[in-house]
Amino acid sequence: MANYITPLRDMRFVYNELLDPEAIQALPGFEEISPDLVDALLEESGKFCEEQLQPLNRSGDEEGCHFENGNVTTPEGFKEAYKGFCEMGLNSLTSDPQYGGQGLPKTVAMLAEETMCGANFSFSLYPGLTAGAINSIELYGSEELKNTYLPNMVEGTWSGSMCLTEPHCGTDLGLCRTKAIVQDDNSYLVTGTKMFITAGEHDLTENIIHLVLARTPDAPEGIKGISLFIVPKLSINEDGTSGDANGVTCGSIEHKMGINASATCVMNFDDAKGYLVGKLNKGMEAMFVMMNNERLGVGIQGLGVAEASYQGAVEYARDRIQGRALTGAKKPADKADPILVHPDVRRMLLTQRALIEGNRALAAWVAFELDISHNHPDEKRRKQADDFIALMTPVVKAFMTDCGSEVSNIGMQVLGGHGYIRENGMEQYVRDARIAQIYEGTNGIQALDLLGRKMPAHFGRNMRPFFHAVRNYIYEKEMNYELKEFLIPLAKAFGRLQKITAVLAQRGMKNPDEIGMASTDYLRMLALVALAHQWMRMAEIGLQKNNGDDAMFYQAKIDTAKFYFERILPQTGALFATMMSGSKSTMSFNDDAF
Amino acid sequence: MANYITPLRDMRFVYNELLDPEAIQALPGFEEISPDLVDALLEESGKFCEEQLQPLNRSGDEEGCHFENGNVTTPEGFKEAYKGFCEMGLNSLTSDPQYGGQGLPKTVAMLAEETMCGANFSFSLYPGLTAGAINSIELYGSEELKNTYLPNMVEGTWSGSMCLTEPHCGTDLGLCRTKAIVQDDNSYLVTGTKMFITAGEHDLTENIIHLVLARTPDAPEGIKGISLFIVPKLSINEDGTSGDANGVTCGSIEHKMGINASATCVMNFDDAKGYLVGKLNKGMEAMFVMMNNERLGVGIQGLGVAEASYQGAVEYARDRIQGRALTGAKKPADKADPILVHPDVRRMLLTQRALIEGNRALAAWVAFELDISHNHPDEKRRKQADDFIALMTPVVKAFMTDCGSEVSNIGMQVLGGHGYIRENGMEQYVRDARIAQIYEGTNGIQALDLLGRKMPAHFGRNMRPFFHAVRNYIYEKEMNYELKEFLIPLAKAFGRLQKITAVLAQRGMKNPDEIGMASTDYLRMLALVALAHQWMRMAEIGLQKNNGDDAMFYQAKIDTAKFYFERILPQTGALFATMMSGSKSTMSFNDDAF
Known about the structure:
Two copies of one chain form a homodimer. The first copy, chain A, has 594 residues and is an alpha+beta fold. Chain A has a domain at 454-585. The first copy, chain A, has 20 helices and eleven strands. In chain A, the strands form three sheets. In chain A, strands 3, 4, 5, 6, 7, 10 and 11 form a seven-stranded mixed sheet that branches. In chain A, strand 4 and strand 5 (188-198) form a beta hairpin. In chain A, helix 9 packs parallel to helix 11, helix 14 crosses helix 17 and helix 15 runs antiparallel to helix 16. The radius of gyration of chain A is 24 Å and the shape is globular. The interface between A and B is large, with 97 and 96 residues.
């Protein structure tokens, strides 16, 4: 049975050694965020996740959510855990202190979130969706809406949901049919059916605040006619308490491959009273702000589940006695050696490590830039951070969730037949991780967002902060002999990335199918180069410190970096070749021949 | 909801056009196997699978097997389906006519088996394991054992199981503790616990014939002291009917990620009466013959499930209306275009196709050589076929099951959120397919078998038939201008394969960890080259026939071949690079740092 432990040592490494904690503390609003405070917070929240959330992970998966007469009951223990979670303030790490939030940097919150997902993916979705809803209201809601909804949502007494998808539309929200009709008091009556609504209905909170995409009768067609509305499950009384039911009902819950303890609901709105958030017909804009925030969060889900799977695999590889090392018995007194002696098992574990630690480093960089983009005093610097985030959001969402599935499948494979058995917990990681490649925009859509939208926008402006950072780092280390084994392949892969970027930019102008065709491979290549950059930086720190205390930790960084450069980065060569081949044979394939 | 249809057109192509049906008919014993007969058989068995097995696939997954007081009940409908299945003789396609079998070539049976797995993976395991058991008894059993057991097993009134794994040993069967103590009548009393026993107990047949690995008290340690025993669930009366219970009980069944309708049992043997199969202490040999046969079958499972997933994905991609083609609306009168217009969706579908059809062709070649190895009059030709099969068995098992997972995950991704919902059936393919990478020897073990055992054996003799076939084909087509776009990359990838084979052979002699480290990548590279060879052959046929009737079918072969060469084969470049990097950084990683 898997036993997840917060990877505190590596989180500290990322926060204190790879990033610059002083730069975070220097940002207005974060003056009190000292490394010691961050450390204490990660330790405490980690402990809560290990002790309170993790024990509910398997039982929640087996029990699932219950649906009866429109009511959804979460699995046993979820209510109590949610109460404790909110009491510790874990539900409001980054929320505005004005409404009762902790006001922490995203960089810190991201690390805490990883632990929540690692300990209990399904559970993390209840506060996760609320955070997204809070975010939208903070950014786009009127003062009245903020004052009415945020205090209870930040406290956790009310939760939030995001109602986008309808049975006939997911990716293409322009097809949305849910109607909103304005009333004399400037409120709206919202009518329609939404599906795949995470935490649309449940028993954890007194009220649920739905953020609903809908169109007014005279709205323009397509996505230009979509508006965003707040629709509470229970109406809000004059005194701010929850009142009567508001025409919102849960029609059913889905039976899914995984995240069984998370209620995925069909939500029916029937003349439900709602309130416009932001401007009329500008709902997609507000939605995208929220979704961009969510997308980093979804990437983190992939990371959390991957770490949990890795830990389970390592434990098994140490304990399972089977066969002998190829070079001769390692434990001749025992009947067999632990399977950790086998190169192929080590290859699997190091693949997991290299992807997990590389992704943690990359995600932390993106979170750090998010903090910059919100809190830095210099507008130019904020703008630059915005550009970087625009580029990296689809990369983090898609690549880190692809890795979530890849890594959790590897973990399961390490256990062999035992990995396929439910009670050992490893197959649940695979089933849970799988959704993250799909929701909040499938990974194919992320790739198209990257290459079709972010790459060409403003003549490539979004690309610059990342490309310049890698290029400058390569120049800076050019004379460092110790780093040569990393520098040369990084420079080579980066060169390939630059070249294919130029090729695709040109081809895309003539034929947009060239962009669509290359997008998934391009996203992966960019991510692999970004991880190589992070791994070289981590190796650099490792080389400086592998003689002192904790030498083993730093040596492992160097060795894992070597593994990454030798065994994973070469994929960029194949990706370059496939992208160069273009879209012709795929697009000319006869539709009827499929 | 997925609706599987037997891919008859492509099966006919493989059997009649890619292979040589006359060469099969020329083999002694197969004189009556005309293409028309094969065609009728595939059509009929396909119809049965579509109409009788497929409807039980989802319901069987939801219901699962039931365990009560040592009895296992299969899901509703399985008993009736099994009866019909045996009445049609589908359970005994390749069995010896002497015992009531159909005596069909493996090449034909393999295609029929694909359909069974595509329609209902779990169901196919009940007759599948019986076939393996029959195979062992046919090859190693005494005349008495054959006459006692085979007629009822071939008829399907009795089923079979293979009892290898124990709680503390799976891969390393030398650790097996189950005991067999000889009795005065030369029978044995078998005592021990076996786990992960597919179809160890169920309600489909009157009796279950277990083939059990065990050791006698004075047997040598390790795998040299393992013997194989027949242990029937019910003793056999003098008149050949099933009699009293025989000390074999089912202790429990596993709850698994998938194949829920297949009973995976813990089997307890308590002084159960058994009979030696083959020679004492030579059980592993008999087991390997059976397992090699099973391993091709497991590869076919990956193929069947992949085809089913592909069909579901194509159907959805045609029907789902969402967004617009990047090059402008394809169906301007509708609100949106089908998602089939998107390059990334087509990329996913063509990846599925290229892997499925390539694997079908490769598996058919292996099955054909199996027929040769059993029935060809010339011993030298039989020996050559044996060598080819020895090499290709691990490749087919591991690569085709890796593709089973890869392809079914792609299929699920095409459906987006709808793919994650159980009722749509696509996620079941992913869960079912996953086991095939694990059982009958994990894919890591297959890779080690290929590179550590098959490659060096007899100075590379096993490699020759495959390497020569590819080399000769390349020489033969060297001057064919039309095939140039396939020939050049095939020759290049083949060159890489030859080179890395030589490098690894040399390195492996000095350090066996070099073999273990490269094995998984090597197996994939060899499989990718083997598929390239098949795809070039298929493209060649396509080019000859793409102007006649059925032009679309042949043109699709050419186009899919192009896709394979452009988009999948380039992986061999990256694999070459990773293998060249050797084992040093992986093996020197500190065990305690994991």
